[in-house]
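Need residues for this backbone.
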């Protein structure tokens, strides 16, 4: 039986695509934890600075993302992953930007950041729920995904 070089190349390419598409447990945990920290901290600012619609949305973000943070903390030990202790520099800069804004400029910027954050979260949770390497986190990602999609839809209505 002869195997052509084309067949070998296709198989190697498929393995490379699968490896690229898969998010490691540690990477998933880190991204989720940072996302939750940002959601909570930015939304606490929004409860003080935003208009009525922004404040209502922000209160829900604090509540929901505090819940997901607690759930994640309960799973990381078994998953042999570590939680980050602080925001990364990108998210710290976004928080600093929000702190400086007020009025309509604050509302618009916060809404845009929420849309972007939830688009990224939906992609991350979809990818991990399909290709994750930890069964418990994979199931949790699938269970959490509908709420994130709802958050995204709500955030899009804020603009």
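Answer:
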């Amino acid at each position: 039986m002869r195997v052509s070089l084309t067949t070998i190349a296709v198989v190697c390419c498929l393995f490379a695509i699968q490896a690229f598409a898969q998010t490691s447990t540690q990477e998933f945990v880190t991204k989720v934890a940072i996302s939750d920290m940002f959601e909570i901290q930015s939304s606490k600012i929004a409860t003080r600075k935003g208009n009525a619609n922004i404040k209502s949305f922000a209160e829900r973000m604090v509540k929901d993302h505090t819940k997901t943070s607690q759930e994640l903390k309960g799973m990381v030990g078994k998953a042999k992953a570590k939680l980050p202790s602080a925001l990364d520099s990108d998210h710290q800069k976004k928080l600093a930007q929000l702190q400086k804004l007020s009025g309509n400029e604050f509302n618009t910027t916060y809404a845009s950041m929420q849309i972007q954050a939830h688009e990224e979260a939906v992609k991350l949770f979809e990818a991990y729920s399909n290709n994750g390497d930890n069964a418990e986190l994979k199931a949790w990602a699938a269970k959490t995904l509908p709420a994130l999609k709802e958050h995204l839809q709500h955030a899009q209505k804020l603009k």
